[in-house]
Amino acid sequence: QVQLAESGGGLVQPGGSLRLSCAASGSIFRINTMAWYRQGLGKQRELVAVIITSGGVTNYGDFVKGRFTISRDNAKNTVYLQMNSLKPEDTAVYYCNSYVLDTARYGHELWGQGTQVTVSS
Question: How far does the chain reach from its first CA to its final CA, in angstroms?
């Protein structure tokens, strides 16, 4: 069994920063991609950032505009999302997503439980 565990959400003032973490655990053979999505109240889930774990290629949602950085620690099977210059419109539940091959070479698309990020004064 493989799973994701997120941490790092919370309340922050506009212009502030937060760092989210997501760790994959279980019978992992290889992690192909790790990503962050978000879903605001009454909105569709959207891609925030994705990283290909081998090589480190990244891609971001257009709304990020240089404010967020996704990174990974392959040794720890962990991905991070550093969010700076946060705006009230960044308020959402942030979900970790990953495509993982387990030790039996079966593929799994995993979702974390979500962590709330609230940007408000």
Answer: 41
Q: Tell me the average pLDDT of the chain.
A: 96
Tokens of 115: 């962590």
Give the pLDDT mean for 94-105.
Answer: 96
Whether the pLDDT of residue 8 is over 90: the answer is: yes
pLDDT at 56: 87
Contact (CB, 8 A) for 71 and 53: no
SS3 letters for the chain? CEEEEEECCEEECCCCCEEEEEEEEECEEEEEEEEEEEECCCCCCEEEEEEECCCCCEEECCCCCCCEEEEEEHHHCEEEEEECCCCHHHCEEEEEEEEEEECCCCEEEEECCCEEEEECC
β-strand partners of 73: 78
